[in-house]
Automatic annotation (TrEMBL):
The UniProt record lists the keyword Transferase: yes
Cross-referenced PROSITE patterns: GST_CTER (PS50405), GST_NTER (PS50404)
Name the UniProt record assigns to this protein: glutathione transferase
BP GO terms, sorted: glutathione metabolic process; toxin catabolic process
Organism per entry: Dillenia turbinata
Amino acid sequence: MGLKVYGVPMSTCTTRVLVCLHEKGLEFEFVPVNFLGGEHKQPPFLEKNPFGQIPVLEDSDLTLFESRAITGYIADKFKDTGCDLIRHGDCNEAAVVRVWVEVEAQQYNPAIQPIVYQCLVAPLIGKTSDQKIIDESLEKLGNVLDVYEARLSKIKYLAGDHFTLADLHHLSYTFYFMKTPYASLIESRPHVKAWWEDISSRPAFVKVSVNMKYEFN
Ligand code: GS8
């Protein structure tokens, strides 16, 4: 039994894992979860992830959830295949990758996620967007992007000279963010813009983003 990913093609956390698998050039089976039908909250799926969330990765008898933990596992297990996403050969470089993986999870994602939710998901599920949440999150995101702009004016990628998990983890939410009326937050910062254009044009992401349409299957 090989690698199996349970998820939804448009889901940000699912696509984080799919991009990682494609960067590594790995074969895997994609198992669509009936999200609208609530399959992820039913006992068979809860055995895989007791929190009832996608994605889940199975590798033979190992079952993992939390997209960033899954990409870390893939990057470690298949370190000699495809792009080295953690810079395993150098302890210092690897540590910097882990720092910026945390920055995405602790600073970037909490700022960008509510904007994407309010602008794209809320209307889709018949809710009114909350402009106060959007405005507060835009301010937070702007502050984070100022740090990125300064950093990316000195180095090509967030963790150094090479594309790593630190960059990869930004792809899914930023892709949707660029479809909101606030894309200028990225476009107005020249080094962030160049970084975004670079990482979003990588073949692995292009392949996955074809299916990233904000509509439920
Ligand atoms: C979040 C997973 C998540 O929110 C991760 O895997 O990185 N920190 C986790 N998944 C959403 C779909 S968005 O991609 C989900 O399953 N939501 C259903 C729910 O929370 O009930």
